[in-house]
């Protein structure tokens, strides 16, 4: 999969339903700007206008508009991609998440 992400310029996930899609985290780690529907917990990963765009479920016009915007603006793609990578390294770090889980277990015990 990493090879596929490295060949991409934009990651698009126009789902009608999601919980917490790992594919977005993988794309972010590959420094891609994200375009995704605002469903499930996608909003926790994609900060609209910062590292990508959140669109309404089923809004094809908005989806096409955002794809065109990123396709036409290489600088915006690079900036959003860098921000994606930064967010994933800061927020989805395995060690950091493991520490959080251990803290929760300690509190419960």
**Beta-strand percentage range:** 5-15%
Number of helices: 5
Main beta sheet: strand number and arrangement?
Answer: 3 strands, parallel
Find the count of extended strands (DSSP E, 2+ residues): 3
**Average of per-residue pLDDT values:** 90
Tell me the structural class: mainly alpha
Question: Regions with pLDDT < 50 over 5+ consecutive residues?
Answer: none
Helical amount among residues, as a percent range? 55-70%
Q: What gap, in angstroms, lies between the N and C termini?
A: 39 Å
General description of the model:
With 109 residues, the chain is mainly alpha-helical. Helices cover 55% and strands 10% of the residues. It is built from five helices and three strands; from the N terminus they run αβαββααα. A three-stranded parallel sheet has the order 1-2-3, sandwiched between helices. β1, α2 (22-29) and β2 (34-37) form a beta-alpha-beta unit. α2 packs across α4. The radius of gyration is 15 Å and the shape is globular. The termini are far apart. The mean pLDDT is 90.
Feature tags:
3 strands, 3-stranded parallel sheet, 5 helices, 109 residues
How would you summarize what this structure contains?
The chain has 109 residues and is mainly α. It has helices at residues 2-7, 22-29, 60-72, 74-91, 94-108; strands spanning 11-13, 34-37, 52-55.
